[in-house]
## 1
Amino acid sequence: MSTPARVVVHPDKQVLADLSGARLLVALVDAQAARGEAHVVLTGGSMGSAILASLGASPGRDAVDWGRLHVWWGDERFLPSGDPDRNETQNREALLGSVPLDPRRVHAIPGPDGPDGDDVAAAASRYAAELASAAPDGEPSPTFDVMLLGVGPDGHIASLFPGHPDQLTSGVAAAAVHDSPKPPPTRITLTFETLRRSDRVWFLVAGADKAEAVRNGVHGAEPSASSAAQVQGLQETLWLVDADAASGLH
Ligand code: 6PG
């Protein structure tokens, strides 16, 4: 089950961040109204933090029951806790450090300072086990309410790089990535099958250098050209873009 891509164009990157932050706020409040808990998957890059900063500046932000929000990451650079290049560190600075989250529901991806040390494969397995432990019996992960995904100019999402041998890893919820084309070379990523276990998938993309990646993603390019095109939400697939990123669409 998946949904067709819909595109929403915003005049510029700041408006994109602000309206996406508002959209996320409403989605989390709605999910918690329905089920109490909610699950969100965060992303790195400039848009991943910009949406959180905008949500944090909203007067409505405390309509979210922060203590009952599960926070996950789509990928992480395999760096120690607190490293400024970790997605987690950047997201904490943007918002997470200033809202009353329950630490037991903040699911950071382990780094080399974690229980498995430098063994990135073991750390990826540990994250997969954590996903399963928060899932209904027998399922590999929760169904996420919102999956946020930044997109690289090469069409990558999370740490799934088009054409890279680790891109198509399957049968596990999270995987190690070696020799990433973008530094740092060692990472942990959710796999395609886990990314797809999301009610809402939102791609957040700004800038003219992303125009081709947006076109390929929206038009359903092959995995060798676009990782983004391989992921749709169960209820909604939105490309939330600025005018520059949309410039390759007709
Ligand atoms: C990384 C990056 C990367 C980023 C996208 C989108 O893991 O090396 O963080 O995956 O999320 O390139 O970045 P922007 O939101 O800045 O365009």
## 2
Amino acid sequence: MDLWVTEKQTEIMAISYKVKKTLHSEKTEFQELAVVETEQFGRMLLLDGIIQTTIGEEFVYHEMMAHVPLNTHPNPKKVLVIGGGDGGVIREVVKHPAVEQAVLCEIDRRVVEVSRKYLPEISCGLDDPKVTVLYADGIKHVKENPNTYDVIIVDSTDPIGPAEALFTEDFYHSVAGALTKDGIMVAQTESPFVTPDLVLSCYKRISSALPLTKVYLAHVPVYPTGMWSITMGSKTYDPEKVDKTKISSYPTRYYTPEIHYAAFALPKFVQDLLNEKAK
Ligand code: SAM
């Protein structure tokens, strides 16, 4: 019998993957959590039926969320990841030689526990001695920790349920407050094709909290259309003015010094979208 998992990406668009096996399924306090083994990308984590990550292509998203801000900041000693319970961003963060402390603030303990069991290739970084895992709401954590982090990475689910408030202006202002005086934040900000209004509103909201705001793109195969936006808000450092020769060298599969710059070269329709900001 053929088994397929279908993510209904919008009311009018869906994507399906052929499933070999369902490995896990439960309803946590916060969401429906499932791990399935797909033919195309291997093990896949889903929350509320939305694909979060897969073994076959996770490196793109996780590397681009971590290494672009970490290599923009000259000395990212203390890093916070909000969400990201699969551990993929943390695994990348601890590769950076300057990082001394990495905190993961995930609201749903079960995402971490299930990822440890079924996605060890992704969650392995959680055992690094530099890492502290907190099970808490990221919104509360940033409010309670002013002037603390050099880099904050918001690796959230889509803006529904517990992650809805992670896309608000209030939250971005709290993130700016939790950053040190030259800190940098990045957030995953969805698809320019499918949710252009959201890309623009995140850009405007992050701009209202941090003086230097830039959008960059990564090619994430399992997210709607594959073209994914990440928005950086920085107090001082410009990601496009990084000295290429100073970019740290460690094993990556997507991120390179060239990709660091290329990711900020936006297609015309994305530039036009962001220029709406001025209107
Ligand atoms: N980047 C992935 C995506 O867009 O598909 C998301 C990866 S990660 C699994 C997202 C995590 O954010 C989830 O595990 C969810 O529990 C967590 N999360 C949602 N709202 C949160 C909040 N307010 N504070 C902390 N973590 C939160």
